[in-house]
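Appendix B, record 7
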Amino acid sequence: MVVFFTAAPMLQRHIEENASAGRGTMIQASLPWNEKVRLADLRMLGVLDTPAEERFDRLTRITQRYFSAPIVLISLIDTYRQWFKSRQGLDATETGRDISFCGHAILQDRIFIVENALHDIRFSDNPLVTGSPGIRFYAGMPLKGPSGYNIGTLCVIDRQPRQFSLLDQAMLQDMAALVETELNAIDLAELRRQRDHEFDLLQAIMESMRSTLSVRDVQGRYLFVNSEYETVHQRQRSDLLGKTAFDLFEPTFAQASHDADRQVIASGATLQSQSTIEQSDGIHTYQVIRTPLFRKNREIYGVCVVSTDITERLLSEKKFRESEELLLSVMNSTDSLIAVRDVHSRFLFVNRRYEELLQISHQSFAGKSLEEVYPADLAERTRFDDLAVLQSGQSSVKEAIFSLPDGDRYFHTVRSPLFDQSRQIYGLCIVATDVTEIRLNEQALRASQDQLKSLNRQLVKSSAFQKAVLDVANFSIIATDTAGVIQLFSAGSENMLGYQANELIGKHTPAILHDPLEILNKSKQSSLELQQVVEPGFDAFVAKVRKGGYDEHEWAYLRKDGSRLPVMLSISALFDEAENVIGFLGIAYDLTAQKRVEKMKNEFVSTVSHELRTPLTSIRGSLGLLTSGKMMHLPPKVKELLEIANANCERLVRLINDILDIEKIESGNMKFDFHSHSMQELIALAVATTRSYADTYQVTYEVLVPDYPLMVLVDSDRVIQVMVNLLSNACKFSRPGNIVTLHLQEVESAIRLSVLDHGTGVPASFRAQIFQKFAQADSSDTRKKGGTGLGLSICKTIIEAHHGKIDFVSDPGVRTEFFFELPRIDLP
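Structure tokens (predicted):
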């Protein structure tokens, strides 16, 4: 079949206009509607600009001989060019796409034929027709890439007009199919090279480990040891391989190692333990993890043993406990009252002075509400003061009078909010200092100095008072004009940062006080939040303020000496009498002491979690063996009690793992390995991971994703962890027979994944707490659904570390949607 089209009126006008203007009539091919994914499909092959290959040249030679054609090409259509993977009868390796015949051919799925280019208005003045190679005849069959898009053609070219029979067309289609097969085929040699590379990489990783690694078969014979194992045990690899521990080590050590291996092989489960090894510099303690090795048929063929020297860690933990005891001693030796309460004003800690003053023991305070400790009127006033700090997120200073057995006492009380790593308030710290003597002296002084009051009132209105406010040592106050140039630099700023005001005023913006990387991260965060581009620089500080709000953010100031100072910086606009913005004001206070307290608290939680993890793992393993019935036959009642204990142990292990994840996040030790991934691939992995969990709740999945890849730059393991948590929650709170839907879509410059269920939903009263640590809508001892209350808090931190956001909407009992958004990256 010959493919022609006639010049329609519009086309005819195009020809006439070009002719009258002295231009040619050549018509460029339009871009395919799917050009973006078509190019991605082409680049997925990795074949552009690669050397000639005989497998392709053989096909073009056969085609050339069959059609007796001077030129045969395998042409791939790139963005601005057509590049020839194989060519017969043509020296050029590529030409411009704008003059290509193949650019027209890929617009359809059938053969594109031009019998005489001189008689075709699309090509009659094409340089490839009027000049070299003098094309007259063209037949091109589109070639498809891995995803089915037209990426190029196998084309036959002649310098003489000719016709193309149905038999010719069938032959060209068959040859094009062979070319497609070769284009999409995996090179086995390359696959072997990749496998060898991966093996070498694995070998290098094992050899570079600071832990000892050994692999033994089910008879206990060594199959592999790394160099660290040789160093620790002072034996050469050649002396170890093929032998058992009984052949090499003293009987007690060998028997213990053999018994542990047999336990792993019998249970098919990982086993953790500790052991000690005497070395030249003393006795070292090792944490040992034994893991069974399975064949594809799930048959165990050996055990992998990884031993990590934890001697220094144990010493560090001991030092931490000693430091914690020292801190507690300091807090108990002060004359001030110190208390820590959670967001519900329940007591978490009080120091010894607090106990003595109220004559209540520490145990009586723990977990108690204000109403359970204080008289009703005092509890009401205190709760009101607590709530003001929790809602504002700002510290408060207040004096109050308390009636005590020895009379009324004045207390100077400072309330400070306590923030977690995600800037969520989880409680507050209260420090109350007895200032009764000071206040009584002040009252006596005021009674005899009435004139001083008048003078003080005048001072409040004077510029001297304003200067005193600006020169508060514990606060940095900096004002700029609208361009960001510093106009005011308080004495408090000089004290905190080491600069003199005359070094900065009129010369620099506040960017000189900040880490450029921190400014870049803030600009990215503001761009996502405001849905507009925020350039790194002064705009990163005031973009939100320009929108009519204020910006409060934790920063690290860079002092003049290069040291870093953690601060909470609040930025607001300055207005003239006509309400025009004339500049910006930044007020910062030092977070050093607060960070120190938070660090000690986090280290304490981490230590407790680590200390519990090992014994709980051992207990869980023992309970698992007992409940499995492999050890002995158990009476039903005993088995029921052991199963309850095993379930509780499993819950505690999950809690500790979540706490350790939180600790890693808050301490900055959670590492993220960012790579580009298709969200569709990550969703598939998360669905596969939770499929059996969904089956236990009789819930099915519905996955709605676009048919083209949506790419993100993420740590795949952490994002899958978020997906698994959201899917598990949706299944857990759904009714049997319900469907949980995953919906992936583009939202402006981001990608949103929604998880929808029709379960019980989230009460409106619980919305503000849902992403906080240990938050559960039903926190009673009799709640039906398990969980640690940490999962969503971890999810929020992971998503925000990816410069994304997470939220939800819920109509309880009808529909609940949890979703997160991540920045989209474009395919190259």
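Remarks on this record: The first helix runs from residue 9 to 20. The CA atoms of residues 273 and 615 lie 9 Å apart.
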